[in-house]
Every structure is written in structure tokens, then in C-alpha cells.
Amino acid sequence: MGLRNHRCHRVLCMGCAVDDGPGARRVPPRRAVRQRPCPYDEGVTADIIATIATAALIVIGCVGIVVPVLPGSITALIGLIIWTFVVRAPEGWVVLALGGTLLLAGMSASLVLTGSKLKRRAIPNRTLLFGVVGAVIGMFVIPVVGLFIGFVVGLLLSETVRNKDFNTALSTSWVAAKAMGVGILVELSCALLASLTFIIGTIVYFVTAN
Questions:
Q1: Which of 25, 110, 157, 209 has the fewest CB atoms within 10 Å, measured from its CB?
Q2: DSSP three-state, residue 35
Q3: 10 forms bridges with which residues in the sheet?
Q4: For 134-167, what is each residue's pLDDT tens digit?
Q5: What DSSP state is assigned to residue 111?
């Protein structure tokens, strides 16, 4: 006998059990068990998405420091905050502490350096505002270089109207441009260091992940 008690042998089909012997009984089908997605896989996917989004925000922030019409260090800081609260790991808090400090220091130093030089030459803040407006217009009129040309032209027009003398306006516009340039350089340097901190923290986080 190949099977024990052939009469009691059951054939399973589609979750139902049917007895092929006398007085066969129908067994109710079992409910299909759905497999839940692994929480670890979902966490890894969220971490990867947050990392890509943060990297994009940091790039936009660095560009925004140079291009005055885009948000700068604040955008990069928002990216670091998002990454920190998504990964919820020690690496995230270290990156936020170091990178956030660098970004805030860069913004503060830029404002102080630019403001002190403008104040020293009695150049009002509206001159920089006119420069930003000129940069926006120049960006659409002349591709690539129009941004910088428009900024300088905006400064020059504002200072010419204020001083009523072209030579004086040329001198003060140059001072304002240099002050803005120094501030941008300092802020961009701090943002790049914050970016490096994020890159190192990301590598350590994913390499040491279980």
C-alpha cells in the first residue's frame, strides 16, 4: 500500500480539502495569507528618497548663494533637517549639527561682511536690491552672463541716481559689487563644507546600516 488508508486520502485543490471516500465532507477553504512588505525595505526606500531630495536641495542652495534670485543656505539647511528626521540615526544628528552650524555661520558672515562694507561707504541696501532686480532682468535678456551684467547695471543705475555723478556712482558700485562678492564667497565656502559633511555622513550611514 502506497498510501495509508486510501479511503481517507484527501486531495487539496485551491485551498479546499475534499475527501474522496464515503461520506465525504467539504472542508471550507482557507483564507489567503497576504504577505506584508518588509518594514526594513520600506525604511531603506525612504532613506534613499530623502538622501536624493536632500542632495538636490543642497545643490539648489549652493546655486542660490551665487544666483541671488534663488534661496541659498536656507534651502540647504531645510534639506539637512529633512534627512536627519527621516533617517533618525546618530549620523543624521551629527550632519545636522555640523552642517547647520556651517550654513548659519556662512549666512551670518555674509551679512556682516557685506553690511559693514556698505555702511562704511554709506551705500544703502536699496542699491543691492536694484542689483538683484537687474540680475533677474539680465538673466532673461542675456543667457548665462546676463545675470552678472544685470546685477552690475542695476547697481550702477541706482548709484548714479543717488549720487548724481557717474564717476562717483562707478566707484560706489564697484565697492558694493566687491562687498557682495566677498559675502557670496564666504557663504558659498561654508555651504560647500556643509555639503561635504552631508556626503561623509551619508556614506557612513549606508555603509554601517544593518
A1: 25
A2: coil
A3: 19
A4: 877 887 787 767 777 888 888 888 888 888 888 8
A5: H
